[in-house]
Amino acid sequence: MGRWGWRLFEGDQDLDVACSLVDGLGVNTDSWEHSLSAMIHQTDMLAPPEAAAFYITPEYADKLANETIPWVRQKLDTDNLGDQLFATSRAQEADPDDLFLANKYRTIILGALMIRAGARINAADLQHLRDLVPQINCTSRRMIFGDHGFRTPGKVQFLAALDHYQPGVPRSFQEPSCFMCGKIEDDIGHKPLQCKKCKVATYCSKECQSDQWREHRAEGAAPRRAKNASFILELVFCCQATYEMLVLRRSIQPIQARIVKGSVLLPMATGQMH
């Protein structure tokens, strides 16, 4: 799966979940005028040039704010459809075969889309979303092969969205947010400041930038490793993240990976899956 950014909806995983979410929960959307995924858009280099150009026009912003989002919000709030979607998604979270917690992450994406629309979310579901966040895999590394769960800036972005959630008030996930605390312009009264070195990370204050500097410096090293063709390191990181999930879900006893002259050696596991 491809990922071109660190926040929510800046990777194929999130977009794929958003596009199939409602139908996957058993609701037929053939007659819907707008889909939930219409509130977000692909922002990477694979987006067609005409689409990328349209996304930055006043016409798109006006349609999104005055047509798409209000329609989706009304649809979710009518007959408590949002509550029904949450109930169905939560009921499927306990699937024992869901090794990568995809069903739980789907509930996260559902919550994000409802916040995007400003739809009603009851107190129990809001608390459930908070409880889910620490259960979802989160990494600050750039992954080539795996894209399961949060990147650190996306995690804090979602937590900030929960903290500032207001029914009837849409919240964008596709504008700059602080990599440390997740706040956006509406929360702090000014646009987050861009890191002068990497030109990617943004921060609401110098304090947040300072607090996250050690982690951000490690994040910034990943693209350089890929650029220098240290492909094997990215593969190891992917294997490590996958293995950590298996340990979490299947209680495998720890094993260690060693890198020897560009080769990855994985010793036999000392335990077995239960």
Number of separate structural domains: 2
What composes the largest sheet?
2 strands, parallel
In oligomeric terms, what are we looking at?
single chain
Task: Describe the strand arrangement of the main beta sheet, using strand numbers.
Answer: 1-2
Helix and strand content put the structural class at: mainly alpha
Number of helices: 11
Distance between the termini: 29 Å
- List the helices and strands in order: HHHHHHEEHHEEHHHEE
Helix content: 40-55%
Low-pLDDT stretches:
221-234, 247-274
Task: Name the overall outline.
Answer: globular
How many strands?
6
Radius of gyration: 20 Å
Strand content: 5-15%
Average pLDDT works out at 81
Domain MYND-type: 178-220
GO molecular function, one term: zinc ion binding
Keywords: Metal-binding, Zinc, Zinc-finger
Protein name: MYND-type domain-containing protein
